[in-house]
Amino acid sequence: MHELSIARAIATIVCDLVPPSDRPHIRNVTVDVGHVSGIVPDSLSFCFEALSAELSLPPHALVIRRVPFRCYCRPCATEFSNDSGIVLCPSCGSADTEVRSGRDLRVATIEIAESNQDRT
């Protein structure tokens, strides 16, 4: 289960960027996960929740946005997508393609309550 090490890396990024006093007030940590990245979103959420207690992070703060798989064909300038990560162009059959998205994994945003009123 590599999701545990990924969840730990996400938590480390959050802890590096957010001071300890603000960590309990994190509203969400948005992570972009590519459709063909090999990451199971439910497993990643579960692992992040398990780690959150020891790091003083809210357990349900992780928000996962799925990034669709998209490619660009250089010979015919076609942009295409599919669910399986196949890089052959459906228009001309070329393998001279560039993956534009879908393998992603990045912490996109960390949202923290701004005022004491928001923290109730």
What would a concise description of this structure say?
By secondary structure, the protein is of the alpha+beta class. It is built from two helices and six strands, in the order H-E-H-E-E-E-E-E.
Tell me what the structure shows.
This protein is 25% helix and 29% strand. A three-stranded mixed β-sheet has the order 2-1-6, with helices on one face. It has a three-stranded antiparallel β-sheet with strand order 4-3-5, with no helix packed on it. Helix 1 (3-17) packs across helix 2. It has a domain at 3-69 and 101-114: hypothetical protein PF0899 fold. Strand 1 (26-34), helix 2 and strand 2 form a beta-alpha-beta unit. The longest helix is centred in the N-terminal third of the chain and has 15 residues, at 3-17. The protein starts with a helix and ends in an 8-residue tail after the last strand. The protein is elongated and about 55 Å long. The chain contains two helices and six strands, in the order αβαβββββ. By secondary structure, it is α+β, with helices and mostly antiparallel strands.
List its traits.
6 strands, elongated, three-stranded mixed sheet, hypothetical protein PF0899 fold, alpha+beta, single chain, about 25% helix, three-stranded antiparallel sheet, 2 helices, about 120 residues
